[in-house]
């Protein structure tokens, strides 16, 4: 059934979201059955071995496990497709609502089937057929075509180009020439002596008509795209989602990876998600939805391993804490508004984790948040909450656009005194640059507006990556920064798009600069105090450990305010608080709604 204006207006996106959740639950249930079958076959092999029947049973069971293992990611893809479809419908409905709001109180009317017309006053008897003797409306186009209006509005109040043929921009046949205008001039839409609708009303009708047409076309295209993808999944299901082994690219840029992925068949892609999730899930340039499916498979496997490790006698060191954290992550990923995407999971060592709220491949605006000191897989929940808070504020600020935020723990932030070194930031340069390039390579449609936000040591990581090699970002934001490894915003690629905020009592401001520490080593605390005083008086305390304070006047960033904390440590973590002005400004930056720079906060 073809999507119509009335269908789109009456659609309930929540129904698709509910269906998506149901498919996600089915995927998880099927994955549990897969695990149970795999464990059962292992136990069977321990007690039944040798002989033709045992070998046949083992081979048959292994084949079934392999086939069953490819199903959960495919069912998860249904969840993703339905969620994306619901988001598309929501945005298109908002555009319709804005169009209808624009005509409220004007002479423009939109009928229940989306037909746009301009109301005209009562027509005297003897007027053109169909309009005599009462209040009428001027059809937006001859033949009553839905959502079209006369194209010409510049010739005067209520005038349109003369013509009697059908189609957009022509005068209805019953009105052409009736007003008595001389040949070659525009024919009037209403009789002489009767007030005509204003040119602004006709122009508004043109705009609204065009918008309704565009929205309905997009709805139809989106419906067809979703149907095509679901049909492809159904065909893959008929083949039991089987595929042949596929080698992954050994090297190449994210753009190369994106081209490689685009050249694969659906069965090859399904095989990779099911059989090679470790490698596929971390490949920048692979679509976010694919990485999400691969990494959720990894998460499920890691949770199984940790449960066994925590239940062992004695329990494996750290297993219970990691299990608690990743169980919380799994619960967070199951929340539906907005949908979360697991873009990276590496449980080795302190771990790597990348989580997006909203689909970055479909986002009009995408922000990557880089956390700072001490963040790891054993303590990431706060950082995930910050990315979610920014997404919620940005979505509320720009409801007519799609915004995705990413918590990027794709590096190993330092702990404690290690934060005095640039080593971790230097080690992260390539990975951060590749991730941002991957966002560009896998994005659909028009390029997204990209923001890169670093908090504390994360701002140094952002600054070093930008300093030593251009990172794909339209906006750079430093929060509570100890310095970005550069002397000024001019050393970054887009100086006019560098933003900074530091709370007036943030602990980071108490850190001495390297020069001040050198003075202390040479002449003791008195020398260090003298250096600090000179810095405070002459430079506004601009010298910090990793360079010039991005929130200082000397640095040249666009500075915005943040709340004062109850103490210096509290202030350092306050930037994403719902009551902090910094969160609102960041949302404005991310959505492109930001104004001019404000003065420094201190």
From TrEMBL:
A Pfam family recorded for this sequence: Abhydrolase_8
Residue span(s) of domain DUF1023: 346-512
Top-rank taxon, per record: Bacteria
Bias (Gly residues): 153-169
Segments for region (Disordered): 123-169
Listed name of the protein: DUF1023 domain-containing protein
Annotated organism of origin: Catellatospora coxensis
Lineage, opening ranks: Bacteria, Bacillati, Actinomycetota, Actinomycetes, Micromonosporales
